[in-house]
Amino acid sequence: MLIFGFLSNKNMEYFLVVLAALAAVEALDNGLARTPPMGWLDWERFRCNTDCTNDPENCISEKLFMAMADRMVADGYRDVGYEYVNIDDCWLAKERDDKGRLVADPVRFPNGILGLAKYVHSKGLKLGIYEDFGTKTCGGFPGSEFYLQLDAQTFADWQVDLLKFDGCYSDPRDMQYGYPIMGKFLNMTGRPILYSCSWPAYITNYTAIRQACNMWRNYGDVQDSWDSILSIVEFYGQDKGNFSEAAGPGGWNDPDMLIVGDFGLSIEQQKAQMAMWCIMASPLFMSNDLRKMPQESKAILQNIHAIKINQDPLGIQGKQVFGIGNLLVWTRPIMPKGTTAFVVLNKGTGGTPTKLDLNVDLLGQNPSGYNITEVFDQTSLGIFKPSEKITISVNPTGVIFAVGTPV
Ligand SMILES: *[C@@H]1O[C@H](CO)[C@@H](O)[C@H](O)[C@H]1NC(C)=O
Ligand SMILES: *[C@@H]1O[C@H](CO)[C@@H](O)[C@H](O)[C@H]1NC(C)=O
Ligand SMILES: *[C@@H]1O[C@H](CO)[C@@H](O)[C@H](O)[C@H]1NC(C)=O
């Protein structure tokens, strides 16, 4: 196998011990991601724009990440839980240095990643970075294959707090070994580094993935459109092989970034994405321009009632319980005991709200019933017995997001 090319015999022995140890643990044990991680990531909104000459405000540069860190603090995102500022692809220089180490593009990152990390930390935030398990990143910059341990150490030396590890330009058969090894090399640095893997996008053994990674992508990249959001929700609703059950404190399925505040979604659709990402216990990484946020989008992203459901300490990923016509019904058990969050999503585009008479026993059998409250604006919908029905009216391409608490 290709990836073993760089391992000495000593490392190989160590690696076998590592595999034995990994088999005994359930989740990656680095103390991180006890609830779904939250932050900001540049990729969906800013892509691989390296043209700082003509587009200095939007190119991938330390200035962009510093500006976003500033906004995260000044506009209240940090205070509601958004914590990581993540660099995605295209931050690298085209070549490693003469010692084989990775180098940030010196023009776009004049203070290096360490300088940026210090700035981000001074704001009470954490810094994430991107690399790739293959020979090149998806954008064609130097990949980590044959340099896994050196790169893990480099990231730790730079005080990085999260690694998103992509899978372009690699042989998927190597991933079941390579991704856990990179995780072990991160662990060996002694610095807690949240490990975000793109591995299941290529191969899906969720037991192995949960042992190795704090979060993992398992579907295509999100795009700036409602079609994209709906296709992700439908994939999560199908829950092939019950991958929802792999989620829990320490490790999470990652349906990709929030595009709330971008160009493609109406306000109804932005609320729908937020509600679904909360019910699915998804990592909440915004990819938007925090310098130009519509007030309504900011309010959706900072809704503390929605975030509280996303961050519920039980860490149970919600499931689609049924679909009827254009409506999808999802539930998620949350704290305190017996409480259920639910979403009714209307896929329909007919221009009038669709009504659903929902059996309240969907929430359980508590004889004195459930107090049902809409999440975003905390409107009380009333108290209902399990034998009753509640009539829910859902706008086209929108949601009703609510919680039923036993009374
Ligand atoms: C490394 O792994 C060990 C055992 O799983 C764990 O106890 C420790 O906290 C980890 N350290 C870091 C820095 O992730
Ligand atoms: C999945 O990974 C686990 C843990 O490494 C392993 O025990 C199991 O055999 C794997 N399953 C398959 C189908 O490969
Ligand atoms: C998934 O869960 C359902 C319901 O609990 C069960 O019937 C089914 O066999 C499971 N499928 C797999 C692949 O584990």
In total, the number of domains comes to 2
Query: What best-fitting shape do the alpha-carbon axes yield?
Result: globular
The first-to-last residue Cα distance is 59 Å
Specify the CATH architecture of the largest domain. Answer: Alpha-Beta Barrel
User: What's the CATH first level of the largest domain?
Assistant: Alpha Beta
Helical/strand content category: alpha/beta
Strand runs, count: 16
Low-pLDDT runs of 5+ residues are: 1-25
Biggest sheet descriptor? 8 strands, parallel
Radius of gyration: 22 Å
What ions, cofactors and ligands are bound? Answer: 2-acetamido-2-deoxy-beta-D-glucopyranose
- How helical, in percent, are the residues? 25-40%
CATH topology of the largest domain: TIM Barrel
Put simply, the count of helices is: 11
The CATH superfamily of the largest domain bears the name Aldolase class I
Mean pLDDT: 93
Report strand order across the widest sheet: 7-6-5-4-3-2-1-8
Strand content: 15-25%
In sequence order, what are the helices and strands, one letter per element?
HEHHEHEHEHEHEHEHEHHEEEEEEEE
Describe the protein in words.
It is a single chain. With 407 residues, the chain is α/β, with parallel strands linked by helices. The protein folds into two domains: 4-310, TIM Barrel (Alpha-Beta Barrel); 319-406, Sandwich (Immunoglobulin-like). The protein has helices spanning 9-24, 43-46, 62-74, 112-122, 148-157, 175-188, 206-212, 226-238, 267-279, 295-301, 304-310, and strands at residues 38-41, 84-86, 126-132, 162-166, 194-197, 215-217, 252-254, 284-286, 319-324, 327-334, 339-346, 354-359, 370-374, 380-384, 389-394, 399-406. It has an eight-stranded parallel β-sheet with strand order 7-6-5-4-3-2-1-8. A six-stranded antiparallel β-sheet has the order 9-10-11-16-13-14. A two-stranded antiparallel sheet has the order 12-15. Helix 5 (148-157) packs parallel to helix 6 (175-188), helix 6 (175-188) runs parallel beside helix 7 (206-212) and helix 9 runs parallel beside helix 10. The N and C termini lie far apart (59 Å). The model is unreliable at 1-25 (pLDDT under 50). The structure holds 2-acetamido-2-deoxy-beta-D-glucopyranose (NAG) (3 copies). Residues 23, 205, 207-208 line the site of one 2-acetamido-2-deoxy-beta-D-glucopyranose (NAG).
